[in-house]
Amino acid sequence: MKKSKMRSEASSSSNNSNRKGETVVGDCGTCRSSCGYCKSSGRTSITHGLWAYSVTVDDYQDLLDRGWRRSGSFLYKPDMERTCCPSYTIRLRASDFAPSKEQRRVSRRMQRFLDGTVDVEKKSVELIKDPSTSNCNKVSSSVENNSLSHNNEENNKEEEILQFLSGQIDNAVQLCIVSGQFLSGIQLPKASVKKVSQAKRKLLVEGMENLLYTSNIAFQLAATLNRAQLAEKDVQQIRVFGQSIEDTGPSPKIIAAKLASSLIQLAETSGLSIRACNGHLNFYSAMKQASLDEDVHIGTVSKESAKTCESKGGCLKNSSEHPQAKRHKLQIRLKRSSFDPQEFELYRRYQIKVHNDKPDQVTETSYRRFLVDSPLVFVPPSGDDTVPPCGFGSFHQQYLIDDRLVAVGVIDILPRCLSSKYLFWDPDYAFLSLGKYSALQEISWVKENQTHCPTLQYYYLGYYIHSCRKMRYKAAYHPSELLCPLRYQWVPYDIARPLLDRKPYVVLSDFASLQNESSPCISENVMGCQHDDIGQGDSNDVRMDYDYDDEMLDPESESDDDEPDTETSRQTVGVEDGDISNIVIRGQGTRVRYKDIQRVFGPIQRRSLESQLRKYMKVVGAELSERMVYALGSYL
Do residues 440 and 106 lie in contact, with contact meaning Cβ atoms separated by under 8 Å? Predict the structure, then answer.
């Protein structure tokens, strides 16, 4: 029953006769390449590849539901039993999405930024840059005898500064994650900055009198990273030359130094001096402490001091006349996939700064091949309930803040889903967690467009790779489902996770019944799995599919490719039936079924071609093999 239901879902979109176009593919066979996820030294990533001359959105939707993805016009499907990093298609029903606390926090942060209450370029920096302003406002408040309300205002300002500095440290942590300096895919503690009181400053050694704020986040990060490192290596109680393995991890001193280095820009704009000291991250002021003493009572500030403040331009005439915070304008534009020089420059900057690519590696040609070229046949809006207003096809979703391009999401809009392919963003706006924010916007887009196209229900996040920590963030979009690599049924992530903890390749549909059954050996693990601890960092800001370069693809030799895989052969028996004689063949400008031309081939050529066609049918399925056009290439 489940199988028939899945089959009807997969084929429902293909029955729309109003959509023109055809799918034409060339078979690349089994391909080996180096792995972009585990970074193995050998060609351990094994996929079956197709070169797509054109693909209808209905056929590509059905290919996605069989585990395929695209990189430009190259379609690929992992050989799940042999590849180094088994990749499971993951999706989310948009209407069921339950945002986590962290995801809600990302939305609130963006809204505060747009409202002007969070502005890293002006408001918070100015509060820090000239703390003497607070003393001037004290004078103004004392004149009005409104000390109580003024104290509340000062406390709010102080809290704003602490929150701002904490946020900047968190942003620096995320930059260290995306640059590979810290482990990704684990929940890291959030920074907390505290004010150093005047009494404590007096007790400090010489040279520390101007210390204003401090954070011990490096100690918390060191403990968390060391625990994660132990879990990653699966090592317990190993000692090296009499020292515990924990001693080999990053120390608080090293972490604090890295964070201080990442906060150089903040130091330049805020007037603070930021230094690492014995694992602590300290914020100093270059100004004399006498002018920074906020513990002085309001009545003790002299008129002379107030005049000095006014002469320096640091005092406002009235405490109620604070400058309005700068509001920002966010625009989200959806455009069909095409080359845009502004997008390319942003992509180039992102790859170099975030992924540490060498400048000569980020070329316009590689960008076009990876993120611009698309074989999908565009379907314009139809005015009925079958196509959304934008149509179906490949798109770039642009995010602009104050007319500045800050992020681009590369997506495919298909009959049943929005498929997210890649995102690149401006490193200057890392504090907004644009990866998470754009994912939330894409989920909302699916919800909104269901009124125009009821079949459009899902958000596809690409591949979920359990063995790659950097990709585990995708499961944070709850409740998600993984595609069974054998029977192509969708299995809840909460069922799949404990199974994938045990081994990388699992026939998930064998355990799908656990959702409604109580199995002592699995259900306890399933019940203990919580999605909130997955992907709490901003590692999803590097959302991506793999870019297959031409030189990286290495088709296996014919003898190796023909070698039977006994385990796969055993498992696929009875899964799907098909007849290669019904495959549509393109050759010399014609479209015919293989059964109509098989007699033109000699015995050896025919045997070789039929072996290739069987593999093709196996990876795309009988239904698609009879619907898509197979380009013969050298055979005719």
Answer: yes
